[in-house]
Amino acid sequence: MEITFNKGSQEKIPPTDEATLGFGKVFTNHMFTMHYHHDKGWFDPVIGPYGPLALDPAAQCLHYAQEIFEGMKAYRGDDGSIYLFRPAENAKRMNISARRMCMPEVDESFFVEAVKQLVLTDKEWVPRTKGASLYIRPAMIATEAAIGVQIPKEYLFFIIVGPVGAYYPEGFNPTRIYVSEDFIRAAPGGTGATKAGANYAISLYGMRQANEMGYTQVLWLDAVERRFIEEVGTSNIFFVIDDELITPPLEGTILPGIIRNSVIQLARTWDIKVSERRIDIHEMVKAVQSGALQEVFASGTAAVISPVGHIYYRGAEYEINKGCAGPLARKFYDNLLAIQYGLAADPFQWRVKIA
Ligand code: COI
What we know:
nine-stranded mixed β-sheet; 18 strands; D-amino Acid Aminotransferase, Chain A, domain 2
């Protein structure tokens, strides 16, 4: 399929103060859209002006939350080159989400091409400051106007992009985390391993509870026993206990994070003992009390690596590494950024240079 370009007017200009970008509030002049109908497949791929979508109020996504998305970034190197980071992994994961949500798959190389062409169209918007990047948000919604609960025949795939800074207001400073026992994010057999918007909608209630208690995010426990740690906020979670790097296994309720996978691969090349295994919240508490717990950090595309300084569980607050970012979190952060921005060798060929 050929993408049609309809650039329109370039009415917005990129923000000049990249230090105060925040996350996800600013968007560029263009977006990618492509439609699907069950009888003809995907059609009309267009890069056109950024703007509101026209949706029938009966569109199924508005009623039954049939929406999936991805999160990726474009990075500008010191010499002006622009890179994507493992974009094929996002394309693959989008299709895994699509299958689970009964939505049509998108050709994976076309997905990457659409991302690339949109970033190139708005390449002036890729920030020049290290730590800032162009966030890329591919998404798919069911657009068929039909109120009965059935598998829709019509969909829209779109991509929007915008310059971002740190995801958390804390930046690389440690976050404060609240362990939710009252609410869950995902249950076995559910959609926890997909990037379905609905997973994020149901997380808001627990997040509000955490915020009201003075914490940044929720640490989610498993739905069945409420003791095995799953994810933190919108990110995967890692613990360093007695020099072992531990992260919960991918058993269907956890998002298979691309940064999670990159951390694991990097750790293995650094000869760090890595375990993808269940970790009980009581094991964590004991490890804090004995001094064996050295670090906790979150990983995700938006947050990159985000150290955790305090964890609240059942009326007690546990301090991690004196409330400071740990050396391993810093090392992963620095090394990932160096690869993403083209400042270091790329032994795994994760970078894709697009300009
Ligand atoms: C990402 O890390 O890119 C995500 O998709 C999290 C998001 C909900 C901001």
